[in-house]
Amino acid sequence: MASDRHARLVRLVNAEAGEYFRTGVRYTSFGWEVIYRRDDLPDQRLRERNQAIVDRARDHKSLREQDSPFGDVRASVELYENGVLIHLREGARSGVVLAFEVDIAKNLAGFVVKCQQTLQSS
Question: Which InterPro entries match (predicted)?
Fold first, then answer.
């Protein structure tokens, strides 16, 4: 079950991204759950697609070394021809993956920071 901070994250993303927000999936080392899915998206293959994304998110490797002067990785962004995935890390094998229409990329950096701050607040 999604926590209050995940519910706040969904509200923030809805407010900021509106119709560009497609899905949100929260995962831990034990499982995953859809915390948001836009109503107009088809249900077909939803479970298989999300499982594959979560498996890859859990095993995601940072581009920088662990002792990097940048510090720990907090989020990563994948920009595709027709969409954007934002992966917000919460722990070694937990986090949130948000999917968007590609048009969200216009103001991406500030948006990712707001999402991360929402997850870190108590």
Answer: DUF7522 (IPR055944)
